[in-house]
């Protein structure tokens, strides 16, 4: 009987140890996924950030369009994607090949535009919001809104994706729409901080977005934050071509009228340019937080 009690106590201890190990492993996994993984993925941009601070990155390229590309855009929201035509796929592949060939042949960093990285034709700018973790290169692939959902600036598969311009728009449009993931983790990476603009205090404390592209630096003031449930209202927030000034003003003011928070006393002008930043939010299963900015 004594042996039976001893064996029972030993089994209980073994079970307790196993449960403890499982608990530690579970907490460790959650900690990794919620903090260390996003932090590690975010650190891959540190080298680029340092080069940018030291003015060793340039974003001059031939993508910038002053508004002459009338056929570059068709009204779509971010969840409506066309299949990329084969001609565009081939063009994209040719760009990659020519870019790689340029790097292999010893092309200078000035000619490559984007330091020593091969993918100069897709990395066209940089976006940052002072006081937040948003500080990233901006990618662009014409006609494609899917690729950079799952690829980084090195063209490697990455579930965190990239920050990228709407592929159905063009650089220099009257309204440029930039997307980024909201990584649901403790560590704020990619476009997760955008959801904080739903709070008035954060909105007031982070009024400026810095966006460098086409060889120029620019600042944009945040004028509104809108929440869009794509399951129900599917409001357009990525229109970039307008018939005339009245069409632009009607569109911009409609956006502002639908904002949950907007800048007091702001009045949109016909010569304003807009920058629309979009990320997922979790109010519903298919919801977006949309931050609207005006070029200063």
From TrEMBL:
TM stretches of this protein: 12-32
Species annotation: Ruminococcus albus (strain ATCC 27210 / DSM 20455 / JCM 14654 / NCDO 2250 / 7)
Pfam families attached to this UniProt entry: Sortase
Annotated GO MF terms: hydrolase activity
Spans annotated as Disordered: 54-107
Biased composition (Basic and acidic residues): 71-93
Superkingdom, taxonomy of origin: Bacteria
Segments of skewed composition (Low complexity): 94-107
Residues at the catalytic site: 181, 280
Protein name in the entry: Peptidase C60 sortase A and B
InterPro entries to which the protein is assigned, alphabetical: Sortase, Sortase_dom-sf, SrtB
Keywords (A to Z) from UniProt: Hydrolase, Membrane, Plasmid, Transmembrane, Transmembrane helix
Keyword field contains Membrane: yes
């Amino acid at each position: 009987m004594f042996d039976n009690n001893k064996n029972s106590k030993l089994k209980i201890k073994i079970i307790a140890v196993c449960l403890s190990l499982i608990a530690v492993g579970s907490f460790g996994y959650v900690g990794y996924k919620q903090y260390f993984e996003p932090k590690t993925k975010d650190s891959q941009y540190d080298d680029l950030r340092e080069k940018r601070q030291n003015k060793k990155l340039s974003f001059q390229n031939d993508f910038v369009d002053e508004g002459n590309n009338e056929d570059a855009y068709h009204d779509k929201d971010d969840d409506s994607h066309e299949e990329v035509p084969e001609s565009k796929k081939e063009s994209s592949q040719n760009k990659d090949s020519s870019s790689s060939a340029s790097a292999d042949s010893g092309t200078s960093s000035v000619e490559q535009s984007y330091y020593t990285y091969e993918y100069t034709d897709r990395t066209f700018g940089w976006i940052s919001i002072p006081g937040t973790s948003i500080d990233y290169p901006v990618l662009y692939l014409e006609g494609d809104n899917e690729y950079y959902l799952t690829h980084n600036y090195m063209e490697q598969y990455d579930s965190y994706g990239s920050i990228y311009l709407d592929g159905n728009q063009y650089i220099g449009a009257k309204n440029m729409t930039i997307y980024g993931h909201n990584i649901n983790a403790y560590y704020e990476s990619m476009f997760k901080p955008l959801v904080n603009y739903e709070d008035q205090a954060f909105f007031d404390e982070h009024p400026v977005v810095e966006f460098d592209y086409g060889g120029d630096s620019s600042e944009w003031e945040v004028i509104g934050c809108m929440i869009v449930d794509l399951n129900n209202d599917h409001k357009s927030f990525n229109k970039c071509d307008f018939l005339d000034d009245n069409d632009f003003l009607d569109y911009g003011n409609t956006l502002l009228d639908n904002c949950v928070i907007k800048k007091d006393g702001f009045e949109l002008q016909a010569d304003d340019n807009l920058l629309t930043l979009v990320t997922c939010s979790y109010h519903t299963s298919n919801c977006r937080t949309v931050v609207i900015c005006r070029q200063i």
